[in-house]
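Consider the record:
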Amino acid sequence: MSTQIVECTLARQRPRGDTNMRSPAGQAAPVAAGRVPRIARLTALALRFEELVRSGAVRDYGELARLGQVSRARITQVMNLLHLAPDLQEEILYLAPVLKGRDPIHLEDLQALTALLDWPSQRRRWKEMHAMRW
């Protein structure tokens, strides 16, 4: 069995106290208020993982679990987000930033929704969930 090495380049993080963020033109870089909701980050991660598997960079989801040091079940939970209708995925990816407190949508909220194979049913349930909870 051969071992594959996956390489990636990470941007160097600026020191925590460094508030002098300037663009190459010398102007201050705009900073968005709030943070990206966790469910949006997980959806983007699922899309990236799928791309890695399809391109052959990683063999399968099991290898992703080993590389990420998480369980196969956790990878499955994240990858199930790809079973959502494309327009729902897009809506999740572009959720408004969370300004304070807890995220309005959690992965567990969407697990039952991902189990529905019919996209129109997913959309109906999404609207119901959205009206009731968020």
User: Anything to note?
Assistant: Helices lie at 38-55, 61-68, 72-79, 86-93, 107-115, 119-133. The chain has a mean pLDDT of 85. The radius of gyration is 18 Å.
